[in-house]
Each structure stands twice: as C-alpha cells, then as structure tokens.
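Figure S4 source data
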Amino acid sequence: MKLWEGRFSKEVDKKTNDFNSSISFDCRMAADDITGSLAHVAMLTAQGIVSAADGAAITDGLTGILEDLQTGKLTIDPNAEDIHTFVEQTLTARIGDAGKRLHTGRSRNDQVALDVRLYLRHEVADLRAQLAELVGVLADKAEQYADTIMPGYTHMQRAQPITFGHHLLAYAEMLLRDIDRLDDVAKRLNVSPLGSGALAGTTYPLDREAVAKTLGMSGVSQNSLDGVSDRDFCVELAAALSLVMVHLSRFSEEIILWCSWEFRFIELDDAFSTGSSIMPQKKNPDIAELVRGKSGRVFGDLMTLLTALKGLPLAYNKDMQEDKEAIFDACDTVKMCLTAFTPMIDTMTVKPENMRKAAAGGFINATDCADYLVSKGLPFRDAYKATGSLVAECIRRGETLETLPLADYRAVCDLFDEDVYDAISLETCVSQRRVLGAPCPDNVRAQAKRVKTLV
C-alpha cells in the first residue's frame, strides 16, 4: 500500500514503481527514521496533538521495530516504496490505528530531510575519527623520522634537502584542514527541518525546538521552503570528502613513486601489496593505486549532487531522491579508503639510506652554497650566479659540490674558504632551516607534538 494512494484509481505500473522506489538505498536510514519519529511522537504527545495512550503505543511500537531490525528478527521489505513507508506500515500492522497517527503534522519531505541529516551526522563523526587516526600515525612517523634526510622536490626535480618527518607532516596539515571542514559541515547539518511539512509548515501547534533538543540538534530551520529543499549540507560534505580524496590521492602518488625501484625510499608491508599473475618479481602498491583511482568516484558524487540541485525550483522535487546514493557512496568510499590507507602507512618500512643517497645527488645544497656567499657579504644575485657556474663545472667534470676542490671554488669567487664544506653539508642545510614551518629536526618534533594535540 502506498501512503499516497487515496488520490489514484489504479495501481502504479510495476516498472514505474521500481523506478520510483528508494528502499534499496534509503533502508540504511532505518534507525535514524525511527529516532526522528520517536522525537516527533514525544512532541505530539506533549502538545496534546495525540493522546497519551496513542503516544505510548506508538513509542513502544517504534522501539520494538528498531530492536527487531537490530537483532535481525525483522527484515526490511524490498517492495516497500521507501523506509518511511516501511516503518509506518509495520508500526500500524503491529499496534493498529494508533500507528496511523504518527504522521500527524509531518510530511515525508521534512521527514526525509531530517533522516538524511541524522544519518550523515553519524557518518561525519566516523569519518572524523578515521582522519584523526591517520593524522596520529603521521605524527608518530614524523617524530621517528625527524632526522631522516631526503630530497624535497619541485617539478619532480630534486630541489632542497628536507626530512622525511617534515614531508609526512605536510600531509598531516592537509588532513587537519579536512577535519576542520568536517567540523564545519557537522555544524550546518545539525539543524532540524521537522515541522516544515511538505513546504508550508502545518496548522498543528508543533514544538519544533523540543524535537530538535530531543535529537541533540542545535536548532531548527527558519524557513519551511528551505527546510525541505536544502541539501547544501550534502554538497558541502561531498566537497569536503572530495578534498580528502585529493589529499589521499596525492599521498598515494608519492607512495607509488617511493615504492618503485627508481626511488626505493619505502617498502610496503606484504599485507598491503599484491603480485603479478605472470611476473614473479612484482610487488605492486595496489592499495595506493586504488585510493588514487577512487578519488574520481568521490568527485563524481559531488558533481552528481551539484547537477541534481542546480535547476530545481522550490520546494521539494523528486530529483532530490538522487541525493542519497551520491552522498552515501562518497561517505562509503572515503571510509573504505581510510580503512586500508592508515594501516598501510603505519606498517610501511622506511629506507633512510636510500633517501640520504638520493639527497646527496642533484645539487640540492646549491641554495645553501649561494647563502654561504651572501653571509660573506656578496649580493644574492651575484652569489646565485657564482653557484650556478660551480654547478655547471661540477656537471662537466662529474663532481658534486661536496667533492669539488677548494681551488675551483676560489677560481669562481675568492670569498670561498674551507668552511664552505660544512655550510653545504646536508645535515647543516637541514638543521639551519629553523624558521617556523621549516624542516629542521627540532621543528619537526615540535610540530608532530602540536599535531597530536589537535586531533
């Protein structure tokens, strides 16, 4: 039976019914639908809109349905139109006509808007916890490898020396911003639309604030049209999750590079790698590749939501049924990626000797060589040119700045002295970068501790 069948004289075509149905995906909101209904009926009873006896019967009936769903004693009927229909019809079947009073002063429009908010509130909390766990792992690793020198890159060319701990904390900072964005989403979605009705509120004396308080929500929507048609919070969450996936995808790209024989900076644990069906030597970073690939899926969910909403007049339109699959998929995908990604990072083996060897090549201490001349009084542009000449000479002769004889230094600029070799050592290059946010080991350790206090 449809909740709206009184207006119609014939059954809906089965294929049309299947097309219209949302039970296959909104069934996951069953607990939230019941939670919202319990708060609604408590308010209806308190306001004298339904009798105390009916209110008690409805409350007991809803509680029993929730318990039976949780234990598996009751299963959701896949032929129901949506989760709201299933719950209400099950309730009426169990307690009789009192169940028909549950929907008093309410529409499926404001009901589903509430259900989605309640469901996503849990999802945001779970996602936040997963991100915090990953940030904690990165902070621990950063402390462990605060002194591990590696080359920093620009344009995928070796640029300047940093430490592995410093590199990991860059991703921790990105993820901290992701957590902040989720916290912002949580604030805006934690508002109750219940009482907006189909679009114009209701003539019943509802206490909307009481329902919101019962549900632990911060307030109520202020416009009934907006209350039923607002899905900004879904878009905002999808956008925040898209940025999470951007960050995980960038990190995955580096993990994939670092695992390669060309880098060999890290090795992933066997539990987070796969092999080849034909090449027995292969150890593939499939988890990182999948995370990188699944980023596009979450971006697509965001685009689905934006496209579904962009042309909708007020208030509710059936197009809005498309919000749930998109935002549910975005949440599911990010949670699944984090479930695999965090232990992959936690268990990886770092190879400091390979990082140090890579840092020794590529003249990544050239800037420090120029800075050495600046400390002797030479203008930076002149120091830059002199150092460039030295690099060119090293390349021509197969030398490095560390191995080039002092006479060759002095042939370019007479300000060079024996202390240049200490100034351009990688350890000095890193340890002297003490400005806030720079990679000296003390900074890295301090920032790792700071990061841990923020999650």
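Figure S5 source data
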Amino acid sequence: MQAAQNELITRIGPGTPCGELLRRYWQPVALLDEFDPRLDPRMAGRPLKAVRLLGQDLVLFRDEGGAFGLLDRDCPHRGADLAFARHEGDGIRCPFHGWKFAASGQCLETPAEPAGSTLCQRVRQRSYPLRVAAGVIFAFLGPEDSPPPELPAFDCFAAPASHRFAFKGLWKCNWLQAFEVGIDPAHPSFLHRYLQDDELDATGQKEFGRQFRAASVGEVDGERWPMTRVMREVCSPEIRFDEVAPGLTRLTALRAIHASLTHVRVTHAAFPHTFVIPLSETVTITQMHVPVDDGQTYWYSFFTSFAGPLDKETMRRQRLAHMSLPDYVPHNGRHNGWNFKPEEQRTRTYLGMGEEDINLHDQWAVESMGAIQDRSREHLGQSDKVIMANRRTLLKAIETVRSGGTPPMVLGATEAAALQGPDTIDCIAPTASWQAHSQAAAAAKRAGAAWLAAGGAAPA
C-alpha cells in the first residue's frame, strides 16, 4: 500500500475523507455504565464527562429529566472548556460568564448581558443526535442537515437486557489496525495459542477472555475438542468470504481435522468497523472499533446469550480487574512491555502475555505496530485476503462519499430491519457436508433462545 493511501484510510479528524465517511454512521460514545454512581461516584451529583470521538472534543451529560446531551466542548461565547461546566439539572452552565445550555444545545441564559437582551435566543451550541441501544450511548457526528441512519437489527440490539452485556476498552492505536485484527481468521492459531488445553466452559462467562482456551467446539470421534487444540494443531485455515448484504461480509475459516472432519468458524464483518464472532457455543460478541482520534481507539463489545441470562455483575468485575476507571484504560501496555514473560512464552503460551485475558494479546498486536501502522512496509499473503478486501471496500466507500453518494451500511428503516443476526458458529462438521452441518448447528443455537423466538428474528 502506498503511504498516501495509508494516510487516506487512517486519518479521521473533521474534514478528512475517512473522517467524513465515518461520520455517516452511529458511533458509540459511552457505556451507560459510565453514568452509574456505583462505578463512578462523581456521577451521583454531576452526571457530566468530557469525551473525545473522531478527533472532536465533546461534553456528554444527562439532565434531570434523564435525557442525554452531547455538545461541542468549547463554549460558543469565548471558548472556555465546558468539561468544567456547572451541572444545573436542566442544563449546564459555563463558569466563565454564566452562559447556560440545554441538552439540545440551545442557550438558555446569558446573565452578564443587559436586562432584556435576546442574545441567548440567537445562540445555540452544536449538539449531536444521541440514541441508547444495548447499554451503549451512540452519537451521530454527521452533517446537521443529514438524518442519522438506522442501526441494523442485529442480535446484540434485539436481545433483552438480561441476555446482553456491554463493555469497552482503550487501545493506543489507529482504528483500522484495531479492526483488522478482528477480521483476520488466521491469527488465533498463533497470537491466542495455548500450549496446553484447559477445562471446558461452554458458557464463556466463567473464564474471562479465554474463549480460545476452553470453549468446546464439538466432538471428534466422540471426543470434545477445545478451541485451543483446534487452533494449535491446524494453523493454516482455508479462508473464504462472501458478501451477504452490501457492507456485511460472512467470513469462513475451515481447518481440516482429518479427511472426514473439518472445524468450521463462521464470523461476520459489518462495515465500517464491526465484527461478530462466537465467544462460546451459546454466546456471541459484536465488537465495534471507534476512533477517539488518529492514534487511539475504543473497542466496544456487546455480548449476547442464546441460552440463559448473562451474569453481568461477574462479567463486569472480571473485566474491570484489567482496567482503570473512569476511562477503561488497560493496566498493561507499552509502558510495561504488555506484561511479557519469556518463561511463559517457552512453556505455556505462544505469545507470553498471560492466559486470562486474550484482549491483551490483541492489544499488543495492534499497539506494537505504532500509533498508525505503516502499511507501505507490509508483505501480505494469501492468509490476508480478508484484510485486502476490506481495504478495497474502505477506499471505494471514501470515494463514494466524496462523490456525494451513500456508502455501505448507511441504512434506512427497511434495510436495517432486514439485517438480522448475523450468525456465528464454531463447530466440527463432516467435511463433505460442512455447510449444511454448520448451518444446522447455528439454527439449533438460535432455537435455544427464547427471546429470539419471541421476536421472530432470523439470521442474515
């Protein structure tokens, strides 16, 4: 890839071509959990926080009526920082001259002006549309005269609160390299390789971050295999991909166990930065990679259960053990060598960065490339075919927006309602009939979800 192309697809600030593309989509801006006083006591008396999204500095707050507001962070009077605003229930007030703003951005008061002044009626701070879905607050930073699209009717948005859980974490790298690690079907055989197997846990809840260690994927000659064994022993998958809808790509990795049996892993990539993968036999992860700015990214994970309710308190506690609040910053990183242990690399894991949290494995991979990966130095192979295809789609979408067109996955109501699922599966199947077998396994998983049957949704 040429250096100019790499600049084009990685820079996302206001006015950049890729930034203009990403502003056509809803972007997660915060977890609802971030306004929970149990997790952040500051929220009890002042539910307001500074946020940064797509290279823009913003302030997010909840008013006394429960409505959220997202405003530009610089006061429209003389530019003071609204992250230090007084929260007054029905709005926020700049401490510099007392100008007050509602969640809509409308100026409510300019108390230093003479009596009878109508200045505040003519002032409005830029505010951005918000919506809450699946425990996450989404923002639309697109043009003010452009209506926001609809979110697809994916399972993570359709599941009831009891069967879904959202979490996030910060990576110090560009959004695209964060996304590309998730759509790479070959890397789990190496980056997440464990040198021994472990007790199986089909729920994916008990052992945080160990889905490639303990999740069972089915039977081989009567023996249940964990994913670790599959990934370790069959490290060169056959990779296929096909577009099932504009901007929604099904990724299939086939690992031949022997002549009669094949491991099948089906995941999906949704443009521009979402993938859907199996965590276990009954839980999936939908993960979005949201640019903070050019050199930082938040990943947002939506866990969806097709069996019983999720133990959200346990899942949150397990994950917070590896993070620092209030900004969800990992304890490990470049500053401590991502907690690398040479002895562990020799004896227990291929990477040497812990057995409990495979998020750290991915974090090392993407952060160690540098804040923005220099793709002009790459040497790509056949195992990178999905990465190359996604970059072509991204470049085409940037040109589409430049030309005034509509890029993939900017959805109207009808299109969004039609995009259900998308399904994922890890299973061992007869080689001759792997497609029918994996489809039947996916259907059986979905049939076990009472909430899905009630909603009548079907996989994309």
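The first helix runs from residue 3 to 10. Residues 202-206, 456-460 have pLDDT under 50 and may be disordered.
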